[in-house]
Structure formats: structure tokens, C-alpha cells
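Field log, afternoon session.

UNIT: design team B
ACTIVITY: writing a sequence onto a fixed backbone
BACKBONE:
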């Protein structure tokens, strides 16, 4: 027999006979009315779990990680406000059921069963996934990636105080809101959770407002691996900057009392707290999980005997709120409702086509207030002596700095964060003086943790900011890539465009740095970014392009709510000369603040029949090679992609008009590089002979061989001549 049916039968029989588990008497501020509401939410969560398992067995449901045993989370929801944003653990059906009871007009049974059935009418995901969440309930959807939502919960909490000082146009949370995030005892050991909690403590230790409630749902096991007894308390009870609370999750009165105390502490003190809730897990990890395969029967039977619904029925009976027969009547009433609604939801439409599935990969546009930009007086005050230099040619790093200054002047909701971006001005000086111009509130020096940097940005995007995080080096992104892949890029998809986290992520990257750092400071691979659906990847090659592309990146984030990544070639930050020493051929003057390069707009230099298609450092080297080719009578045009994702196909094909042959030059590795997509495009959409020159499938060395594995001026010219002379 299914353990869900075993637990259901035992609950009915024991309540009917008054055979309740022992426990402390009810105590605390919970009213009879609220206790009844919590119990109803617990019963609903339990019956939704049972119904999801039955729907799966009938081929009509597709996700059965349930919340049974975690019904105490309904009491946590009751202690919070609907305006408190909640990032939920996947076992928090009871929390969502209780919050639905707090928000008039919601229909939790209908909504959650539509989700189980993957119907297009599911009000959250539109049938794309069974996830907890609701726009009306202020619960963003979560993926199942372990603990990946904790860093953005830190960011969302940080944004609450910042929004009081710098109010964003699209602010979501109230000034006295708190943020709650929940996770399991096993998840608390994940590096993402450890980093997020450490980041919260690090922030609070410096008396920075951070109204965040961590809720650890401790059922003592992670799938099949037991959590050592006492481990969670030993790990978190004495952390500096973090107030620890413990509640018995089987006791709705105790859980409500402690959760209310924890929430009040967070709300009044603006400091993080850790609420440790002791629970049990019923039925195993998921519907397909047979816990008897790895647990002795007496272990899970002990958990079942401590069924939190039995404890709730006992406490409600002892306080005179509900007699046993009334508790059973509510349980049966809700089961009948779930059965009735489930029969209806399986008839509702489901996704059928790729177009339907992909409709929410790219978030919707949002209306934004128009702006005339900063006044001349504001610009003069911000730029000071730099203003006189705007008409003089400058390298990329300086033009980027000026573009960021203009953008932050125009849009108060733009906030930068990252290691060393403030006082130091970044490793390469790109953000120098910005902290003096805009203050530490908007130029946030973070701790050294890429997951926390990206989480801070994602969370701030939830509250209307346009965050601009910086990752110091491309190779360091890999420590935190799931924050993009599993969180930022999926949010619109899983919420049918209702939740977004716009951002412009700046990454100093690619190769050709002379004599510094080897692989970890020279990393010529963008494959980890290119295959993430929906994100925009920009890669400028010269300072004027970088400034104008940065403006477009901010527009895409602010107005179209996109996740944008600008990869800034480190070797081109200081580049001044092109063909000869001190010729200044790679510098440019600062483009007027109203000029930008639109997404998909490529750059073309020259009109020759030999086209060199490239980007980043490749444009610089190809421009040099084109000059060498011209001396040998071969006229070339250099096409700079600028935008690596989505691939600017129309712009590339237009730039190839009149060309006779095409050489693709790619500074990234041969395998997984942009050149693969470009070669496919040329093969599928043109009849032009084409070849490619890409980097070797190798890491980068330090010292004289720093560029040995990548295209060079000479190798580009050689490959171009070979292609041009081929019949």
C-alpha cells in the first residue's frame, strides 16, 4: 500500500479514537480563529500531496515532491505578512496554502492542481513546471536546484533598506517588508547556502540593514542521507550577526509563537535571523522514492506516528477549538474538494508546441518613465575635470567609466556591486571615481563570493532596481554560473513572465593579457553563457562601441527586463595603438550620451570582397591583418558581431552583401565557440566559401606563450590569404 494511504488511514482512525501522540500543551498568542485557519491550510496541503500522487499514477500529474510532514510551515506563513516576499523550499505547500488564506480572491486548490496537471491555465507557470509560487502571494517560483535561491533572498532583503534611500520606479516591496527564504537541513550544507548565510552575517555584522528570515526545515534527512543529530543547531546557533530561534514544527502553537518572535526581530531590528523548525518527512523524498529501500521500517513508522496533523488535531481538541469529529470533517471536506477539482483540471489544455513553451523565455517589456537625461550642471558636477577630456580620444576603460557615470546620473535605480568596484575602482580602474560620484550605497563593495554577488543583483532586481554586478574575471564566473542558468534566466520562463530579475552583468574576460595570471586571468571560453536561453551577451571591441553598447544593455534591462551579460575584453581596456607605436589608432572620443548601438546591430569596416567575421580582440587583430592584406592587394572588410547572443543573423547577412568569401576569426576555443554557430549560419544561409580560425582547445599559459594558442595578426593574415587563393 502507498505510504500516503497508510498515513491517511492512521490519521482517520487515531483522531476518531482519540489516540493522539503526546506533546506539550498549547501556549502562545495564537487565536482560535487563526489556529483553525492554519489547520485548514495543513489539511489542504496534505490532501494536495495525496492527490498529486494519484494523478501521477493515472498519468495526469507530473511532479510529486510533497510537503507531508512539513505542515508546520503553515504556522510560519501565518506569522508573516503577505507583503513579505517568500522564496520557498519545494516542501512548502502548507506555507502557500496558508498565505492564500491571507489574500482574498485567491483559489489555492484550483491553482495548485492546475500546476500539478501542467495546464496552460496554471496561473503561475502556464503549464511549464510544477513549482510553488504566486504573483498575488508575493512568492517567486523556485527551481529545484539545491539552495540556489538563498543568495537572491539576501539581495532582496538588502534592497528593502536601499529602496528607502533610493526609491526605484518599479519598487515591489514595502518599506517595512521582510524577506523569508526556506530550505531543508540537507540543503543547508550546500556551498550556496553557506555562502548566502555567511554573506548575510557579514553584512549584518557591519550594521547594514538586512531584514531576512532564514527558515531551515529540519526533517533529519536529505533523500537517503541522514543529518547528524544536533548538526543544524551546532552549525547556526552561534553565528555572528545571526539571531537563532528554534521551533517544534509539529506544534502549530509553538511554531507560530517562535516564528512571530523571529519575524518581529527581523522587522524591528532589520537584521537576519535563523528559524530552525524541527519536522518529519512522510512518504519518502518523492512519489518514486521508496524509503524502505534505505531506511529501517521502524524509522519511518516513528515519523508517521508523529504526524503533524495528529498533533494539530490534539492541540485543537485540548484548546476547545475543534472536537475530533470536527477535525475529521474538515479533513474530509477538503479531500472531497481536491478530488472534485482534480477531475476538472485534467481536462484543461496543456502546452503542445515549441512556440507555446518558449513564449516566456524572454520577459515582457514594461513601461518606464521617460527621462531627458541629466542636466549639464549635474554632468559637470559629476565629471568635474573629466568633462574637458570628452573630445579627446580615450581607451576603452575610460570611455566605459564615462558611460557608466552618465547612466547612473540618468537612472537612480542603477546600482553596481562586486568585489573592489567601489573604493579601488575595479581591478582595471573601469569604475574609478564612481563611488565619489554616487556613494557607497550605489557602488557596493561586496565580499569575495561570486554567488553572493550575483544573488545580490538578482534579489535587487526583484524589487525594481537595475543591478549591474561585476565579476572580476571570466574564469571566476564558473563558481556561480548556476545563479544565471538556474535562477536569473529561468525566472520569466517559470513564472510566465510575471517575475523578472533584470540586470547587466559586467565580466572582465577573454585572453591576450600579457604576462599576467595565465588561465584564471585569461579565459577564452563563453560556452557556459551561450547556451543559456534568453540572455543577451554583448562583447565590445573599442571604447566608443563599448559606451554605446552599455547604454543599450541598460535599456534592455530597464525596459525589456532582460538578463544581459557584457563581456569586456581585458586586453582592450588600455589599448591605444593599432598599427604603429603611439599612433593612437584604437582610441576614440566619447559618443554623445544619446547615442547607442542597438541589439543585433553589427559593425563593418571596409568594403572588400573578403569578409573577416569576428568580435572582441578578434576585431582588433583582424583590423591589423586587414592592413597587411591590403599591402598585398587583398581588400578585406572586418565585420564585428558585437552581440554574441542572440546571434545577430540578420545583421551579419546584411554585412556580407557583396562579399565573395568569409573567414571566421574566433578567439575562443574551437570546441563550443561562437565560430561553430557562425559556420552553421554561413552554410545554411549563404553560398559563400568560408573557413574559420579559432583558438586551440587549451587553457592559456603565463609568460611569453600567453597568446600562443589563440589567433594572431599573422595567423589571421595567413588564413585569409589561404582562403582567398583557394579555388
Amino acid at each position: 500500500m502507498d505510504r500516503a494511504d497508510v498515513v491517511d488511514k492512521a490519521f482517520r482512525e487515531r483522531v476518531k479514537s482519540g489516540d493522539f501522540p503526546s506533546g506539550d500543551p498549547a501556549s502562545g498568542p495564537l487565536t482560535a480563529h487563526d489556529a483553525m485557519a492554519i489547520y485548514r491550510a495543513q489539511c489542504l496541503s496534505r490532501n494536495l500531496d495525496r492527490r498529486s500522487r494519484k494523478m501521477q499514477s493515472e498519468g495526469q500529474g507530473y511532479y510529486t515532491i510533497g510537503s507531508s510532514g512539513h505542515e508546520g510551515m503553515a504556522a510560519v506563513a501565518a506569522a508573516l505578512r503577505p507583503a513579505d516576499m517568500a522564496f520557498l523550499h519545494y516542501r512548502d505547500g502548507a506555507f502557500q496554502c496558508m498565505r492564500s488564506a491571507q489574500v482574498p480572491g485567491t483559489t489555492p486548490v484550483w491553482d495548485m492542481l492546475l500546476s500539478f496537471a501542467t495546464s496552460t491555465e496554471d496561473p503561475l507557470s502556464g503549464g511549464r513546471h510544477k513549482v510553488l509560487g504566486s504573483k498575488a502571494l508575493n512568492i517567486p517560483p523556485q527551481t529545484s536546484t539545491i539552495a540556489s535561491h538563498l543568495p537572491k533572498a539576501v539581495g532582496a532583503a538588502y534592497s528593502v533598506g536601499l529602496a528607502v534611500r533610493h526609491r526605484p520606479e518599479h519598487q515591489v516591496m514595502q518599506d517595512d517588508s521582510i524577506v523569508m527564504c526556506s530550505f531543508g537541513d540537507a540543503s543547508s550544507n550546500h556551498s550556496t547556502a553557506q555562502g548566502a548565510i555567511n554573506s548575510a552575517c557579514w553584512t549584518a555584522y557591519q550594521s547594514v540593514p538586512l531584514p531576512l528570515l532564514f527558515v531551515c526545515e529540519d526533517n533529519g534527512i536529505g533523500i537517503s542521507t541522514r543529518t547528524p543529530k544536533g548538526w543544524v543547531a551546532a552549525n547556526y546557533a552561534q553565528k555572528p550577526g545571526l539571531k537563532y530561534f528554534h521551533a517544534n514544527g509539529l506544534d502549530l502553537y509553538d511554531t507560530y509563537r517562535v516564528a512571530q518572535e523571529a519575524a518581529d526581530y527581523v522587522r524591528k531590528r532589520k537584521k537576519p535571523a535563523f528559524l530552525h523548525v524541527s519536522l518529519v518527512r512522510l512518504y519518502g523524498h518523492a512519489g518514486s522514492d521508496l524509503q524502505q529501500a534505505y531506511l529501517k521500517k521502524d524509522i519511518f513508522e516513528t515519523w508517521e506516528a508523529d504526524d503533524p496533523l495528529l498533533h494539530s488535531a490534539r492541540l485543537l481538541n485540548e484548546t476547545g477549538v475543534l472536537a475530533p469529529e470536527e477535525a475529521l470533517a474538515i479533513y474530509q471536506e477538503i479531500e472531497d474538494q481536491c478530488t472534485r477539482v482534480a477531475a476538472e483540471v485534467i481536462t484543461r489544455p496543456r502546452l503542445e508546441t515549441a512556440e507555446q513553451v518558449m513564449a516566456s523565455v524572454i520577459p515582457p517589456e514594461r513601461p518606464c518613465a521617460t527621462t531627458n537625461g541629466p542636466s549639464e550642471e549635474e554632468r559637470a558636477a559629476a565629471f568635474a575635470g573629466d568633462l574637458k577630456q570628452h573630445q579627446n580620444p580615450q581607451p576603452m576603460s575610460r570611455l566605459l567609466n564615462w558611460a557608466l557615470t552618465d547612466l547612473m546620473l540618468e537612472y537612480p535605480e542603477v546600482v553596481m556591486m562586486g568585489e573592489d568596484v567601489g573604493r579601488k575602482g575595479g581591478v582595471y580602474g573601469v569604475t574609478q571615481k564612481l563611488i565619489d560620484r554616487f556613494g557607497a550605497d550605489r557602488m557596493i563593495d561586496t565580499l569575495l563570493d561570486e554567488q553572493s554577488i550575483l544573488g545580490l543583483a538578482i534579489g535587487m532586481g526583484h524589487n525594481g532596481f537595475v543591478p549591474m554586478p561585476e565579476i572580476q574575471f571570466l574564469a571566476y564566473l564558473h563558481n556561480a554560473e548556476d545563479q544565471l542558468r538556474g535562477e536569473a534566466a529561468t525566472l520569466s520562463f517559470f513564472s510566465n513572465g510575471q517575475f523578472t530579475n533584470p540586470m547587466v552583468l559586467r565580466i572582465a574576460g577573454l585572453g591576450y593579457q600579457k604576462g599576467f595570471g595565465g588561465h584564471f586571468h585569461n579565459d577564452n571560453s563563453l560556452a557556459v553563457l551561450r547556451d543559456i536561453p534568453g540572455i543577451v551577451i554583448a562583447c565590445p571591441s573599442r571604447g566608443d562601441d563599448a559606451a554605446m553598447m552599455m547604454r543599450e544593455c541598460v535599456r534592455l534591462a530597464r525596459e525589456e527586463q532582460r538578463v544581459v551579460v557584457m563581456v569586456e575584453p581585458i586586453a582592450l581596456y588600455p589599448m591605444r595603438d593599432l598599427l604603429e607605436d603611439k599612433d593612437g589608432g584604437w582610441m576614440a572620443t566619447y559618443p554623445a550620451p544619446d547615442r547607442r548601438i542597438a541589439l543585433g546591430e553589427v559593425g563593418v569596416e571596409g568594403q572588400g570582397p573578403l569578409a573577416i567575421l569576428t568580435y572582441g580582440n578578434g576585431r582588433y587583430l583582424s583590423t591589423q591583418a586587414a592592413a597587411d592584406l591590403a599591402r598585398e592587394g587583398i581588400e578585406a572588410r572586418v565585420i564585428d558581431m558585437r552581440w554574441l547572443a542572440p546571434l545577430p543573423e540578420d545583421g551579419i547577412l546584411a554585412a556580407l552583401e557583396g562579399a565573395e568569401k568569409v573567414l571566421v576569426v574566433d578567439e575562443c576555443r574551437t570546441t563550443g565557440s561562437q565560430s561553430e554557430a557562425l559556420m552553421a549560419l554561413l552554410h545554411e544561409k549563404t553560398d559563400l566559401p568560408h573557413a574559420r580560425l579559432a583558438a586551440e582547445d587549451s587553457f592559456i599559459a603565463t609568460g611569453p606563450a600567453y597568446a600562443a594558442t589563440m589567433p594572431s595578426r599573422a595567423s589571421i593574415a595567413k588564413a585569409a590569404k589561404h582562403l582567398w587563393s583557394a579555388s
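LOG NOTE: Residues 32-57 form the longest helix (26 residues).
NEXT ACTIVITY: expression trials, pending approval
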